[in-house]
């Protein structure tokens, strides 16, 4: 795909300064973009790269326009404009509609003609698939699943019987939606399986990363709101509800029955214990452990930075006796004040 | 499935108080159950929901019976009775026996007529499958694998050549059993692969969650005992042995050659370093790091709760100098006592 | 495979002491090896097992030779010699070349006759596969992928369109290479997808463990150097570069755009935040959190060992007020020195 700079400016609502007819056909970083590419400045840390960029044009905020030696598109949100421009210039390839001869599709599955079922995929009985859906190679869609229009499953996704997926979702390879929640009742020394009878309901415009897992609910459904974005190897346990537009980076895990608000941000490897409530707009930095409900929006942290091993070892040894050390200190003060 | 209340009472050994002929056809929570459903009270925190429940009946301990406005089944372990009642009322669907025409089954694999091999599955040479086993869509069972009767593989499970799976196990989607352990010998700056020659032996009544991985042993076998329950994205490294009825919640990882006792409980995201021994009946709370062998039953913790970011930052900065701070404090006391 | 002890000594450059013609056909631990097996002593902790071993021979360092009651092969690196001997005695089975009739292979894929494409596998258009490559059962290789000679994919690996894999690599089951990086631009309360236009380039002799995920780059490529070894459930985010011969144990996660040096060692469940630079020869112990760039080779730690729950709870409570406690202590000293 290719466009003139003025076409991009109009399409994405930016002010244009410079050659309106400049042809743009791809994107690049400030450091590596060629003269046919559009780049962006979103993080001020990279401001110094502006002066030497070979990009054809740069998307940036008004305040940086004067530092840029090449034509600019001015926006208050350059990264979002960049994202849309990149989508426009590099459209996601859409496979030809049709059902590969090696796929296994149940006779009563409902598939519009615009759907693509790739090689070795399986579609179960009673499943309803929306317009322009893509089921990737080797994916398994169970019985009585519902998939909204425009949703794309990468190769080797599994949707267990009965799950309900919204429109325009993207599921990356290895995603499992609707596997049994982890429920067992102890009886003497062994465990009795608690049947997991709920399902999973996923809203529109949800993206789920490679090898992430979302369990079905125990009695009611596990729910993922509209616009939620999950990275790779995320784990969502049974009965969890994730509010709209919440985003979770890789290796994040949410334990059972925890309710998460809207627009929350989980910064990677964040783990949340079960049965909590997390309010809207909570932000968790990398590798935090959430053991209590969060009732106030804001940023929360919970990771200790690694240190040189011998230094860490000494500090960790002190931590093992921290309570005693603080008591000692207090008792000294009490003694002193008692003098 | 449907039953009268008295039939459930007799089947599960409970005392019945109320309408013996009440028909029960499903289950529900105290808050949402309808009059055809049976509910339960296992966690005293939900006791207040008893008075307004619309459930047809409730399974509970004797001491709560008087608070319940509807018929009750009395048990000293209401959650286990609920689990069994739910299994009875909502039996796990069993696919019709047979081999899907799209499956690839080795000519010399041993399969009773009661087995179901689903679409796109693969069964290797010399493999022996027990009665009523289900091999889910797209699952790959290697050569010389043994699977005990009644075991069910969900879609897209992988059992590598030679692994041995017990009876009545459930393997959820994405599970990998028998992949190579992680063994390399350093030689100058590069690594020489140490062949992983052992296998994996899994006992009876084991359940393994979605996308969990269990490596084969280096020389001897990795062993998972009877009745073990593993949640999603659990990692079991080579040569590990897990004792009977131990349970591990999601994201738990056990490093190589660690030996784990019976009836242990891992509360989610617990990580255990290699070559340890964990005794029977050890309990680990959420996101603990286990760096030393555990010789005494009991509960162990290891996670710091996240805090507001600015508060956390100040405390974490102090931790970085904790050893010095405690030394300082002690030296003050020594000076004082030296006066 | 079988060999005399002298053949092994010559092949692997060891000094032989004992019966040169002793036939060796397999390997074993000092405790369990039979008289036809060769064992090794690499970890001095197992030295006491030498005196009672039933092994046919033992590979060890010169200084332990006198303690060994059976023939020995002497090496300064017994573990590497053991690894090579085990590879020699137990060669990895190589499937017969050929394309299984159930596989789906694009007409224009380039496959030498020595390649094995297993049951239910998929190979996409324009893909080039080297000599003696094995594509495991149910694996999906996308379009325009390149795979170097001798590389083996276990069952159910996914290589997304365009990725480039070197020679003699091993990808275990469930590995996903080339899934989209996690990039979104915030716009009001929702997120705009940033197209992930780069790919993944993997060097020679790389091994990747079960269910690990490696994302493609945003604009440029994610790069894994020669000889890198990744264990199970490792996550490599977009734009990461991993230097040659670096090794990462299970559950390790590297966030986006982090650059990792050569010969680093990640001890399992290590998590690294994004946009860092880690120098060559850095070693991280189990479950460390890396929040800052590392510029000096050496060993770094970051995990607190779990403790008895009540003791941990008291220490963790003190940590929550650590900054205040240290301030208190300091203020006492200032008051004292002010007296």
What do these coordinates show?
3 copies of one chain form a homotrimer. Chain A has 3 domains: 3-89, Udp-n-acetylmuramoylalanyl-d-glutamate--2,6- Diaminopimelate Ligase, Chain: A, domain 1 (3-Layer(aba) Sandwich); 98-300, Hexapeptide repeat proteins (UDP N-Acetylglucosamine Acyltransferase, domain 1, 3 Solenoid), CATH 2.160.10; 309-338. Chain A is flat, with a radius of gyration of 26 Å. Chain A has an 11-stranded parallel β-sheet with strand order 8-10-13-16-19-24-27-30-33-36-38, with no helix packed on it. The first copy, chain A, has 339 residues and is α/β, with parallel strands linked by helices. Chain A has 4 helices and 39 strands. Chain A is 14% helix and 28% strand. The interface between A and B is large, with 69 and 74 residues. Strand 39 (307-308) of chain A pairs antiparallel with strand 38 of chain C.
């Amino acid at each position: 795909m290719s466009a003139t700079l003025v076409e991009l400016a109009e399409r994405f609502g930016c002010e244009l300064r410079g050659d309106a007819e400049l042809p743009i056909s791809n994107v690049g970083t400030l450091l590596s973009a060629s003269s046919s590419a559009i780049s962006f400045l979103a993080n001020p840390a990279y401001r110094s790269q502006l002066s030497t960029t070979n990009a054809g044009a740069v998307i940036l905020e008004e305040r940086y326009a004067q530092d840029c030696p090449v034509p600019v598109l001015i926006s208050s949100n350059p990264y979002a404009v960049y994202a849309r421009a990149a989508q426009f210039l590099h459209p996601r390839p859409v496979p030809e509609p049709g059902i590969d001869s090696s796929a296994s599709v149940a006779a009563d599955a409902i598939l519009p003609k615009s759907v693509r079922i790739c090689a070795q995929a399986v579609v179960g009985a009673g499943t309803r698939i929306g317009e322009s859906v893509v089921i990737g190679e080797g994916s398994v869609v169970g019985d009585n699943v519902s998939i909204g229009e425009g949703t794309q499953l990468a190769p080797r996704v599994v949707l267990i019987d009965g799950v309900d997926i919204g429109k325009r979702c993207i599921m990356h390879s290895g995603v499992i939606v609707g596997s049994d929640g982890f429920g067992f009742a102890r009886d003497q020394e062994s465990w009795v399986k608690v049947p997991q009878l709920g399902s999973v309901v996923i809203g529109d415009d949800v993206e789920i990363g490679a090898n992430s897992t979302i369990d079905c609910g125990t009695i009611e459904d596990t729910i993922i709101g509209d616009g939620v974005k999950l990275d790779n190897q995320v784990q969502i346990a049974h009965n969890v509800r994730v509010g709209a537009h919440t985003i979770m980076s890789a290796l994040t895990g949410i334990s059972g029955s925890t309710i998460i608000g809207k627009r929350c941000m989980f910064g990677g490897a964040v783990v949340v214990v079960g049965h909590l409530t997390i309010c809207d707009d909570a932000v968790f930095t990398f590798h935090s452990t959430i053991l209590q409900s969060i009732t106030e929006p804001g940023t929360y942290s919970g990771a200790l930075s690694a240190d040189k091993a011998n230094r860490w070892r000494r500090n960790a040894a002190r931590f093992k006796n921290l309570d005693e050390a603080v008591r000692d200190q207090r008792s000294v003060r009490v003694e002193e004040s008692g003098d």
